[in-house]
Backbone:
């Protein structure tokens, strides 16, 4: 309930500040913006969460390289590869899938997300960008439908 109230407050404040332009502000969130090393270094890879009617359940992120040679949809719940929107065959991305599963449970490198994991940050960004497809938070864990 606290998370829902927090999201409602944040949305209200953004609407007050930006009015009708607010939905465009959260169309896409980059969630590895503070990564300076490792498999998802922000200089070589992007992990993004899109918002809007075109995004469908299950909750997921898009992983792409800076050269845009691939675009992968990865599950926030399991870390599994859901689909390849651009790139080679799905089996070509087993290393990225393994690294992503591990990355989800690492502490978040964003200084404003102290004591949170990368999964926490992704789920919060998903909820902000996809108001009608929220992930619930209960008993200190994310509850996926």
Residues:
């Amino acid at each position: 309930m606290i998370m829902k109230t927090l999201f409602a407050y944040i949305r209200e404040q953004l609407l007050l500040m930006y009015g009708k332009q607010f939905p465009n502000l959260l169309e896409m969130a980059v969630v590895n913006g503070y990564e300076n090393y490792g498999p998802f270094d922000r200089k070589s890879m992007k992990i993004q969460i899109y918002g809007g009617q075109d995004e469908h359940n299950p909750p997921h992120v898009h992983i792409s390289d800076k050269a845009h040679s691939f675009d992968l949809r990865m599950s926030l719940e399991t870390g599994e590869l859901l689909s390849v929107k651009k790139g080679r065959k799905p089996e070509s991305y087993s290393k990225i899938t393994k690294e992503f599963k591990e990355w989800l449970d690492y502490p978040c490198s964003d200084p404003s997300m102290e004591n949170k994991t990368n999964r926490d940050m992704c789920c919060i960004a998903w909820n902000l960008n996809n108001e009608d497809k929220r992930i619930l938070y209960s008993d200190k864990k994310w509850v996926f439908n």
Observations:
- Helices lie at 2-18, 22-25, 94-104, 118-129.
- Confidence is low (pLDDT under 50) at residues 21-25.
- The chain is about 30% helix and 20% strand.
